[in-house]
Amino acid sequence: MSDKQGFTLIDLLIVIVILGILVAIAIPKVSNTTHRSYFAAMEADLKNLASQQEIHYASEYSYTAEKSDLAFISSRDVSISINADSEGWSATATHVALVPTEGCSIYHGPIPTTTLLGTPSAPDEVACSR
After folding, report:
1. Domain with 36 in it
2. CB under 8 Å to 5, separation ≥6 — which residues?
3. In this structure, is the dihedral angle defined by the CA atoms of residues 98, 102, 108 and 112, taken in order, positive or negative?
4. Residue 30 lies in a domain
5. What percent of the chain has pLDDT over 70?
6. In a domain, 74, yes or no
7. Which of 34, 35, 55, 103 is deepest in the core (most CB within 10 A)?
8. Contacts of 37 (CB under 8 A, 6+ apart)
């Protein structure tokens, strides 16, 4: 009688199936984490933009739609569009890895919010369309 030690083909197949199930569970969670990081970057950029707008208003007594006037630089792959008038401003952020209808918005003052991606419930509040 021979005493061979090792794994059978069935043992190896069971391990492969278990690993496949674990990978199938892990991939959506990692993908969701990446998706959330895009929204976190857009929210942070809009909050920084709001601070820069208030600094600009304190010195110039007006809001601006020009990022160069604000010395504002957005995060990598985040695009910010700004609308401003004498009474307020609004901004929308999008990320290149997301579809164009996903993004975040913020406003200050009586700016029409029809072009915003998310619908902020109050001025100076960031809202995202997730």
Report:
1. 10-128
2. none
3. positive
4. yes
5. 93
6. yes
7. 103
8. none
Are 123 and 109 in contact, with CB atoms under 8 Å apart? yes
Which token pair is 77?
């792959």
Structure tokens at 39: 């929204």
Residues 6 or more apart whose CB falls under 8 angstroms from that of 99 comprise none
The per-residue pLDDT for range 29-80, each reduced to its tens digit, is 777 788 889 999 999 999 999 999 999 999 989 999 888 888 888 999 999 9
Rounded to the nearest 10°, the torsion over CA 63, 78, 73, 90 is 10
Among 81, 85, 130, smallest CA distance to 110 is for 85
Number of domains present in the structure of the chain: 1
> pLDDT at residue 114 above 60?
no
Max Cα-Cα span within the chain = 95
